[in-house]
Specification:
Elements (H helix, E strand, L loop, with lengths): L5 E3 L4 E9 L5 E2 L13 E8 L7 E8 L6 E6 L7 E2 L4 E9 L7 E11 L2 E10 L4 E7 L6 E7 L6 E12 L9 E6 L1 E8 L1
Antiparallel strand pairs: 1-15, 2-9, 3-8, 4-7, 4-9, 5-6, 5-8, 9-14, 10-13, 10-15, 11-12, 11-14
Length: 195
């Protein structure tokens, strides 16, 4: 039997879709990329501005975990370095349209809150922090049914690989709309292996 194994190491990229630049008026923005990461992984969009851009509204269209068909979400702009975060976990972004000019330079990226599509988690590698923490995967939301929890010891630079045997299934619904939200606390780095 042959399986394709892939890995994700969640991290933020605040200018992944758009580097900081002015927006002079309403219209579609030119994006640097459209896919979020790969293999259907979803990310939370962050819209950030150097000025008070909270009066500008952005319409995001694309593919999001948990949504059958085309997803659309309206998101306000950021305010002086404080970014706004999307509700959806975006797999791909077809377009982002502003309803007006921005007061500061606007960049668009994603934070380190990632979600896995329907897959099997085969293992997790992590580097611990000075305090005890955990890596948790919940179904469809950070408050959803817990699929996996790995407690990490209070040892800085502790590295461990946890093997999940035959794999833990993420996404059980017939419509394939379920997904797994990854949350890590007090963990320096981590990688999730899936197939």
């Amino acid at each position: 039997m042959h399986t394709d194994t892939w890995a994700v190491s969640p991290a933020a990229s605040l200018s992944y879709y758009r580097a900081a630049a002015a927006i002079s008026g309403a219209g579609a923005l030119t994006l640097l990329k459209s896919e979020a990461v790969f293999n259907g992984v979803g990310v939370k969009l962050v819209i950030n501005s150097t000025g008070n851009d909270s009066g500008t509204t952005y319409t995001v269209v694309g593919s999001a975990l948990g949504v059958n068909g085309v997803a659309t979400e309206t998101q306000a702009g950021g305010n002086s370095g404080t970014g706004t975060i999307s509700t959806y976990y975006w797999q791909s972004v077809t377009s982002i349209t502003a309803d007006g000019a921005a007061t500061g330079n606007v960049n668009i990226g994603f934070n380190a809150s990632w979600a896995l599509p329907r897959t099997r988690i085969r293992g997790v590698h992590y580097v611990g922090a000075a305090s005890a923490g955990s890596i948790v995967v919940n179904l469809n939301a950070t408050t959803g049914t817990q699929i996996l929890k790995i407690d990490t010891p209070a040892t800085a630079t502790w590295a461990e690989y946890v093997n999940c045997g035959g794999g833990l299934l993420v996404g059980r619904s017939a419509g394939l709309t379920d997904f797994g939200v990854i949350t890590a606390t007090q963990v320096t780095l981590y990688t999730v292996f899936c197939s």
